[in-house]
Amino acid sequence: MKARTVFGLLRLGAATICLVALIHRLSWGLASNTIASQNFFAYLTNQSNIAFVVLLAVAGVIALRRPADPRWLTVALALVLSWTITAGIVFAVMVWQGGERGIRIDVPWSDQVLHFWLPACTIAAWALAPGHRRVPWRVVPITLAYPLVWGAFTLWRGPLIGWYPYYFLDPRQVSGPLEFLTFSAIALAVFALVATGLVLISRMPTRRQWRSPAASDDAEIEPADRADTRESVGQDA
Fold it and tell me: What angle do the packed helices 3-32 and 44-65 form, to 10 degrees?
């Protein structure tokens, strides 16, 4: 079985696992009958994982049908993975801080899958995936657009319903504007760092060796890729 076929099946399997985890997390939250559970779709983690499910399903079908991912899919994967991985990091820090402060934070298996296991697996998959394209650097600033829009909407909506998905966005739970700005800046910096890491991994020479020569077409290869190809041909000659 070809590597791309195996990887396509793995993508579809990961999409299924993520969907099951999201459904369980929604059911588990609704059973608690709290305002947080009623705002399931307001969490950045859940929104980004829903996008992750859809994109993985599409990526899995493409991997089964094509020898290489189109450029738009690689860029979309880089963006969504930046959001899901960062959400996992932030959640881990919040759980750790809650334990330090004696605050109980329940973490069901679905939360563990969404915040820890899937992000870890996707990082490994990103490094080893056959058929990926090089990711342009403009993905890094674009990555910040979604959390900024989400944050602005959350700050507008929070006072109306008296609830915020994350404590550092709630004026009642921070010491003042300085703490709010500090936490927000740190979160945005993590988004940018994760996106930068994904771009760097996509440009590693060992990563590009997975790409099938038959899958390359001049319309989808960046100038840097063409230069690499010319150098390789020259060396072989």
Answer: 160
